[in-house]
Structure formats: structure tokens, C-alpha cells
Design brief:
Blueprint: H1 8-20, H2 22-31, E1 36-39, E2 46-49, H3 62-74, E3 85-88, H4 91-95, E4 99-105, E5 110-114, H5 120-123, H6 126-131, H7 135-144, H8 146-153, E6 155-156, H9 160-165, E7 169-173, E8 177-181, H10 182-193
Antiparallel strand pairs: 1-4, 2-8, 3-7, 4-8, 5-6, 5-7
């Protein structure tokens, strides 16, 4: 069912979103884009959620997931794989993970993105998947290659406009994220917020 702003609950939610997400709304208007999140167990048409504080990876071997987080933490990044929600301005990337929702992080959010990667999962060296249960292999990879690998991926926590324009995967942390189901809010996002050609 496509919703409209006449419904009191929807109107209150959109007012709250507009007040609390003004930073990202300005960025999205500037870039003429939207942020998408693929939700695998989608039920609600709209809701506000906090990024997880101890996220478990869907596809990435957990030891790699944790080592990447340690590296990011050691290099001053606040938004890491274990404490973030993943979004992208690429509808294709987001749709790979589930039903499409518009995503709006609240003001004050932290973020990380990789200049040389659209989805870090796709950048993990293939031999890792064949050998990730072999402790000696993982130790060798972690000791000898992870710094070079992640440095080459060029992680950043600035210029979210560039990440959005280039359709990069973005990790969001620290503040709640407002989610609106694409099918139900397509017209409202365009007309009320003046966003994108999507």
C-alpha cells in the first residue's frame, strides 16, 4: 500500500525525520541521489533503528571481519564493520541484500567508505575464502598483508558527497537511521524532500 502524508503517524514520522536528518538531506539534495539499504527481513513500512553495536557478518569470515575492524580502529575510524549499518547510493548493490529502503542517518552520524571499493566483501582476496579456517594462513595474511590491502582500499571518513556520487558502500554509525520502504514512500521522498531521480 502506497502511503501518503495525510496519515497522522506517517506525518509525525516524516516531520521527525526532516528535523533530525537535515545534514544528510542537504547532502542528498546537493548530489541529487538517495541512500539505499537492502533489508533481508523487511516487514515495517517505515521505522527508526540504531546501527548494531556488535554486528555479525553475513558473508565475510568472522576473523577477517574482526581484523578489519581492529585495523580501522587503530587508524582512527569510528564507523567500523561491527558497529555500522551498510548503505549505498547504488540501488543494485543495496538490492543484493534485500528489499529496498530509503536510508536517512540522523545528524551527527559517523561514516567510513573505501575509495577503491564498492563493496569490501568483493575485495577480499579469493584465497582467503578457501583458507580462512587455517590459523597459520590467516596469521600469515594478517601479519603480512592486511595493512597493505586496507591501505590500498583507501578508507575515508570525509567527503560523503564523493562516496555517494561514486556509489560506494558506506558504513554508518553513532546515530539512529530512519528507513522508509521504497515502494511505499517513492513519491513522498521525491515530492516532500526534493530528492533524486531514482
Amino acid at each position: 500500500m502506497i502511503l501518503n502524508e495525510v496519515d497522522d503517524n506517517v506525518a509525525r514520522f516524516l516531520d521527525e525525520l526532516e528535523n533530525n536528518c537535515s545534514d544528510i538531506l542537504n547532502v542528498l539534495r546537493e548530489t541529487n541521489q538517495v541512500l539505499w539499504r537492502g533489508v533481508s527481513s523487511a516487514q515495517k513500512q517505515y521505522y527508526k533503528t540504531q546501527p548494531r553495536t556488535n554486528r555479525v557478518p553475513l558473508n565475510t569470515p568472522e576473523i577477517i571481519h574482526l581484523k578489519v575492524d581492529n585495523w580501522l580502529g587503530d587508524h582512527g575510524f569510528s564507523a567500523k564493520r561491527t558497529n555500522s549499518m551498510f548503505v549505498s547510493s547504488s540501488v543494485t548493490v543495496a538490492h543484493n541484500y534485500g528489499e529496498l529502503y530509503f536510508a536517512f542517518p540522523s545528524n551527527g552520524f559517523d561514516y567510513t567508505w573505501f575509495e577503491k571499493s564498492y563493496d569490501l566483501y568483493d575485495e577480499i582476496p579469493y584465497n582467503i575464502y578457501d583458507n580462512y579456517k587455517n590459523p597459520a594462513f590467516i596469521k600469515n595474511f594478517m601479519d603480512g598483508q592486511i595493512d597493505k590491502w586496507l591501505t590500498n582500499m583507501a578508507p575515508r571518513q570525509d567527503n560523503i558527497q564523493e562516496a555517494i556520487i561514486k556509489h560506494k558502500e558506506i558504513m554508518l554509525s553513532s546515530t539512529p537511521v530512519y528507513l522508509l520502504k521504497r515502494h511505499d514512500f517513492f513519491d513522498i521522498v521525491h515530492s516532500r524532500f526534493g530528492l533524486g531521480t531514482f
